[in-house]
Request: fold
Amino acid sequence: MEEKELILLAQNGDDMAFGILMERYQNAVFNLCYRMLNNAQDAEDAAQEIFIKAYRAIRSFDIERKFSTWILSISSNYCIDQYRKRKLQTLSLEDSPYEDIRDENQKNMENLLTDKEKEKEIQLLLDHLQPKDRAAIVMFYWEDYSYDEIAKALDLSLGAVKSRLFRARKTLAEIWLEKKDAQNHTILAERTHNETILV
Reply:
């Protein structure tokens, strides 16, 4: 069935049609929620809430819009709200002390973002981003959204999306460098300690 046909049926109260739409987008919604909330159970709960919101709002959906943009817009806004509620309970992170970052490090960051084997490391890095920056990164790297689609989903200008993505990559690169420096320092200290014991 064509997507527009399913939407029209759902708008006229056909629950089965809405169920099919839900099945088509459940993975995309769950993945975005998981990246935003960093917890599978929270992501499942969020996905359920998001589809309830979508079900209630389906009659007002503009058939000329892309359904994927609409559902991920609901998803990102819901997750941003949840993320902010969580952050109110913890101290906000300090800004990185670095003022500048080399292009090479941003390229390394992009490689890391697309490396599926570095799942845990990526998730820890994403925790350092502001909610909308995080949503933009997730949509761009995991959902392959264009700048224009991200702008529509997050209700931002095209320039703001590019700026947020640049800033987010820069922040991630800086934190990643700090972690790598700390790891290298620890390895060097252990080697020195072991060599001292052998002597």
Q: What stands out?
A: The chain is about 75% helix and 0% strand. Residues 89-102 have pLDDT under 50 and may be disordered.
